[in-house]
Design a protein that fits this description.
By secondary structure, this protein is of the alpha/beta class. It folds into two domains: 220 residues, Alpha-Beta Complex (Spore Coat Polysaccharide Biosynthesis Protein SpsA, Chain A); 191 residues, Hexapeptide repeat proteins (UDP N-Acetylglucosamine Acyltransferase, domain 1, 3 Solenoid). Helices cover 19% and strands 29% of the residues. It is built from nine helices and 42 strands. Strands 12-15-18-21-24-27-30-33-36-39-41-42 form a twelve-stranded mixed beta sheet, with helices on one face. It has a nine-stranded parallel beta sheet with strand order 14-17-20-23-26-29-32-35-38, with no helix packed on it. The N and C termini lie far apart (89 Å).
Length: 446
């Protein structure tokens, strides 16, 4: 049967105390809502319907065409939210899967289990439940003496006896679409002025149906996020999951609890990650590398056998056998070829350093193209900005740049040339020549 999914994401998340819509708060670099979208994608090819309210435009912009959107206005509870999706799904047949966008730990396997249970025998509703000592605001599942589900009682309306129940509604449902849309019209307004989706359980029982349920073995998957504390709890669990996966793939982590790796990262085997390292975005790290400690690497491609020590790399390419740091900084457009050495407190921006090039400490290369086997002495900088435009510096192969050289772009340095310490280079340097001074001038060959 066709499976249409509805993801409820309309709430403001008042307890988050944030101007950002709750479902866009990041977890391991992804917005919270993305986890629900990914889980649903594994079980149905149909585009999910996301019900939005607060921050609707911002959510639509961030998520794009990965979902269809409907606006719940005003926001009158979960049943009203599902009913808002009827403008898209009311004529669809099959199964309606409903879940909350603030439960990012729900796996696609779990959602599939709920769907499969619903398909096993006819019935209008299948729900997911958990057993937990901490109710976290979930409604209580009320059963009769035979164990059949009779109702879900919201925490705000529960008596002391009901509050003692440890079986909780985990807010994941499968509905038969033909039954759902007519049943929604029969829900009564609660004393709080909302229409509760949980009332459908009593309506189905009154119609003579039995309610199927799936008990979640791992209550951690049902963590709902309402506060920043919950957000931190969920991120800790996600980080543990990611780190354990990479360790099983052959990556060594000296201290997994202090290692942050986002979902889009790829790491080769025999790489060692030291504490306080952050691997973010679409970073790719090759085999047998040593990364960290205290490094931040985002959207960087790193080859094999590299060492990155206490450095920051972003939007860059690092080829094989490269060592950087400590306290190196690769900015956008930096490209270090094989066997490059970049010393401490070096910075490279929008520049290529050719194979075997050595860049000393306290140096800056911006908008430069540097050939192979170049020595860049300590304190060397490219003066690439004239106050209006950026200009290039081109350095040939086998060049020796003396310490504290200033290369005033645009400038070209020929193969085999040398600069004396403290030179200020303001014009092109011919091949195999030596220049010194301020401004730098060529010394006559003996």
């Amino acid at each position: 049967m066709e499976i249409n999914a509805i993801i409820l994401a309309a709430g403001k998340g008042t307890r988050m105390k944030s101007d950002t819509p709750k479902v866009l708060h990041p977890l391991l670099g992804r917005p919270m809502l993305q986890y629900s979208l990914d889980a649903v994608k594994e079980i149905t090819d149909l585009k999910p319907v996301v019900v939005v309210g607060y921050g609707a435009d911002e959510i639509k912009t961030r998520i794009g065409d990965r979902a269809a959107f409907v606006i719940q206005e005003p926001q009158l509870g979960t049943a009203h939210a599902v009913q808002s999706a009827s403008e898209i799904l009311k004529n669809e047949t099959g199964i309606i899967l409903v879940l909350l966008a603030d439960m990012p730990l729900l796996s696609s396997q779990l959602l599939k289990q709920v769907v499969d249970t619903h398909n096993e025998s006819p019935g209008p509703v299948t729900m997911m439940t958990i057993i937990a000592d901490d109710p976290r605001g979930f409604g209580r599942v009320v059963r009769n003496k035979d164990g059949a589900v009779q109702a879900i009682v919201e925490e705000a309306q529960a008596s002391p006896a009901i509050l003692d129940i440890r079986e909780l509604n985990a807010s994941v449902y499968c509905f038969s679409s033909e039954w759902l849309w007519q049943a929604l019209d029969r829900i009564q307004l609660s004393p709080k002025g909302e229409y509760y989706l949980t009332d459908l359980i009593e309506i189905a029982v009154a119609d003579g149906y039995s309610i199927k349920s799936v008990l979640l073995d791992d209550p951690e998957q049902a963590i709902g996020i309402n506060t920043r504390i919950h957000l931190a709890e969920a991120e800790t669990l996600l980080r543990q999951k990611v780190n354990q996966r990479w360790m099983l793939e052959g990556v060594t982590m000296i201290d997994p609890e202090r290692t942050y790796i986002e979902f889009g990262v790829s790491i080769g085997n025999d790489t060692v990650i030291y504490p306080n390292t952050y691997l973010q975005g679409d970073t790719i790290i090759g085999k047998s590398c040593i990364i960290g400690p205290n490094s931040i690497i985002k959207d960087v491609k790193i080859g094999n056998n590299c060492q990155i020590f206490s450095s920051v790399l972003e939007n860059a390419i690092v080829e094989n056998n490269v060592d950087i740091g400590p306290f190196g900084h690769l900015r956008k457009g930096a490209h270090l070829a094989d066997d490059v050495h970049m010393g401490n407190f070096g910075e490279v921006k929008n520049s290529y350093l050719g194979p075997g090039t050595k860049m000393g400490h306290f140096s800056y290369m911006g908008d430069a193209q540097i050939a192979e086997n170049v020595n860049i002495g300590a304190g060397t900088i490219t003066c690439n900005y004239d106050g209006e435009k950026k200009h290039p510096t081109i350095i040939g192969s086998d060049v020796f740049i003396g310490s504290d050289t200033m290369l005033v772009a645009p400038v070209k340095i020929g193969n085999g040339a040398r600069t004396g310490a403290g030179s200020v280079v303001t014009r092109d340097i011919p091949e195999n020549s030596l220049v010194v001074g301020v401004p730098a001038k060529e010394l006559k060959k003996k």
